[in-house]
Design a protein that fits this description.
- The chain is elongated.
- With about 375 residues, it is mostly beta strands.
- It folds into 2 domains: about 150 residues, no CATH class; about 190 residues, D-amino Acid Aminotransferase, Chain A, domain 1.
- An 8-stranded antiparallel barrel has the order 1-2-3-4-9-8-7-6.
């Protein structure tokens, strides 16, 4: 039976901006469309990022916390934790819940719209959503004896052209060369950072990092979690390098080695305070249902730039079309170890070494001898 007693018991209107009704009784708000009720999905940056999925019914919002948001692929079910009913006013709520309060963190409206009910009982809820970002038939179903144990499944097929997110992409490697290409204008140029190559998948605001050998290294670099939470509901696969940079933005290989050598959680946390790692993003392999490895390097980098990924410990690196000699000289002036050259029309072949990608090392200048 719908009621707001549990909701009210967890909140004090003097300490939280959330709507707190004076009564435990459900509200009485009229629906905008006959035969349709409203729903809202709120992105909630609390102790752990999640999405709150709320359905209007019997004067309250029946609610689930979904750690990875609603699935877009019918082959994947997502956890949905059934929570207390919320008041109708929560349909419009967005704001900051103070730290220390229940659900403390930032709440933003991610999507909202109307829905139609096809089935509703104590163990199964089937609805058809009509929102700006989410539309289609979904079913929530109970999985255990506890009231909170639910999952959510998409029943409709994904949109045309949808590709599931792959889990086994390894970094593409560059061939070593000693000279710049003759057809300079057909190449893109990047700086080499002497870092740890890593393909990082972001799904439901959670990161997963795989190194060049296929090892899962996510736990060694907690900085990636903040990046993933900022990216939020976008589903991305990125390629790049994990590096430690000094105050002038130059890589520090020895400091990075201290991070890669740390294995247990305590050591990782300790060394993270001494040497923060940054993720320098050089490529985009997947974006929200579209696999991009068959797109050209030029197109992938253009799309990556459009995402404007930038934060305290991550950003997309600069790249340059043509004029490789100037890029090489700039790298030498910054004390970098070399440059990476990529054909503008090259595709991405995971786990391979290709001559369409070339790395040009820059020898370290030997100090001049002085004295007799």
């Amino acid at each position: 039976m719908a009621e707001l007693k549990t909701y009210r018991a967890k909140r004090d209107s003097k300490r939280t901006p959330e709507p707190v009704p004076r009564s435990d009784k459900p509200g009485q708000r009229k629906r905008k469309q006959a035969g349709k009720a409203r729903f809202v999905i709120q992105e909630h940056h609390a102790r752990a990022l999640h999405w709150d999925f709320r359905l209007e019914r019997d004067g309250v919002l029946v609610s689930w916390a979904v750690p990875k948001n609603l699935p877009v692929d019918p082959k994947t079910n997502h956890l949905a934790v059934h929570t207390e009913d919320h008041p109708m006013e929560y349909l419009d709520f967005a704001g900051d819940i103070p730290a220390g309060e229940y659900g403390g963190g930032t709440v933003a409206i991610w999507d909202r719209g109307t829905y139609q009910t096809e089935k509703w009982n104590d163990r199964e809820v089937m609805v058809v959503l009509s929102g700006k970002k989410v539309s289609g038939k979904y079913v929530l179903f109970k999985t255990g004896s506890r009231d909170r144990d639910w999952m959510v499944h998409r029943m409709d097929p994904p949109a045309a052209g949808f590709a599931p997110m792959p889990e086994d992409l390894l970094p593409m490697r560059a061939d070593i060369t000693s000279r710049l290409p003759r057809d300079d204008g057909q190449w893109g140029y990047e700086f080499s950072w002497d870092g740890v190559r890593a393909v990082v998948s972001i799904d439901g605001g959670r990161p997963r990092a795989i190194d060049a050998g296929g090892e899962d290294i996510t736990g060694q670099y907690p900085e990636l979690r903040e990046m993933a939470e900022r990216i939020g509901s976008q589903r991305l696969i990125l390629d790049g390098e994990l590096v430690v940079l000094d105050a002038d933005g130059r890589p520090q290989p020895e400091a990075l080695k201290s991070r890669t050598d740390a294995r247990d959680r305590a050591a990782v946390q300790r060394r993270m305070k001494q040497s923060a790692v940054s993720y320098l993003i050089t490529d985009l392999l997947y974006r929200d249902g579209a696999l991009l490895v068959d797109k050209t390097y030029r197109d992938r980098r253009t799309t990556l730039d459009e995402l404007r990924l930038k934060g305290p410990h991550w950003h997309a690196t600069p790249w340059f079309r043509g004029n490789g000699a100037a890029v090489r000289d700039a790298a030498r002036g910054q004390g970098l170890s070399g440059i990476v050259m990529k054909r503008l029309d090259s595709t991405y072949n995971p786990g391979t070494t290709s001559k369409d990608w070339r790395q040009l090392p820059i020898p370290t200048a030997k100090p001049k001898r002085t004295g007799g």
